[in-house]
DNA sequence: CTGAATTGATAGTAATACTATTAATATTGT
DNA sequence: ACAATATTAATAGTATTACTATCAATTCAG
């Protein structure tokens, strides 16, 4: 029965187009083949060579298209990364909402929510042109850079980070449900979401300062940490 | 008596040159006036315009020196940022070690250590050409970028991040002293050090997902979190 | 006070991050 | 089926960046 409901939800999600803030693109990449190719291959190329070395020229070469055509979809690579990030957090948000629907026990809800934001991601086959596992790797190594810029405040006002903050706010609400008297619900929630990305990064690159191996989930660490902090 | 010892230590620190991994520079900037000017003004300029827009040309203009002269000290701006970061973490490490010397109670040690890595920094007058308050702002907004690159693993092997990891390791040791049975000492310590930077950033830029105002210390949040987690 | 080291000035290169223009191709509406 | 329109491709061009190389000027040290 539970499985059936989950499948029904999954079907639902596969028909919902993930809507991204329209200030992030010049032309919506979801509306054309070239657009989808840009999204799909930018994810692969950024994963391969990193965001710093990624250019629209290289992407054009890879998809046998022209640099200038890519500029018709995105103003610059920073906006493209913001687009990919918004897409990712929207997808996480859907998963979060679905995973806690119909669950009434706050602690159970908390555990499910933490799982969603901390677990290792595998590809979601409902989105053929986007590989979530690879997108997750990009988020782990590149997302932080989207807001560590001189333009944060303007871009924040334009709503480029709302989806990310929405995910954090869902966690905040659940934390408050579990313990309405806890003083630092906001900081705890934002710590978990950002911290999970950092732990996933260092388990690959700074192995001496983490207790996890590359394939481990960091989930248990965060569930224990949050539950103890709220007790 | 305690104050006297602290002052004696402070005098000690003022005579100890903060040594930075010599692979990070071409010529040691501490050995010349121009070198010190480069350090001093790179901190100010990066703080003003951000690391992305910072160039050696602009720095040269500012210190009435030449771009090519700056290249005689640092290979590129990335190495310069790594230098500043190493300097910062070495300075934090000194402060950490001094603040816990002669303290035997592990919990007290823990609280002092967390204070050092989470508190708002003010200028240390023992280092005339380096303004720690501003350097701290740079670390908050730029340090994470030093390791979120495709070259992390090589640079990590070259030891560019040892001082940072040394600070984390000091915390790990103290955490283990407080609770030798806790399974995630490493991840907890690295979470606190990186998390504190993130909380300090968002209290300025993403105010809705933190419980702190710009001038608040995030220390209390972390002390409570760690103590509860270890209990 | 002379030779070595340091710094400054200038020039040059390849790559990046675009903009502009025009041509080629595909799509659509009637 | 065909003209109008939209989309994409190709090419060229610009300012800036991130350097390297060379040589002249200055400083410093024995």
From TrEMBL, chains A, B:
Recorded superkingdom: Bacteria
Known InterPro entries for this protein? Homeodomain-like_sf, HTH_TetR
Q: Which UniProt keywords apply?
A: DNA-binding
Short name of one Pfam family: TetR_N
Presence of the UniProt keyword DNA-binding in the record:
yes
The yes or no answer to whether the keyword ATP-binding is present is no
Give start and end of each HTH tetR-type domain: 45-83
User: Which GO terms fall under molecular function for this chain's record?
Assistant: DNA binding
Name recorded for this polypeptide: Transcriptional regulator, TetR family
* Source organism: Flavobacterium terrae
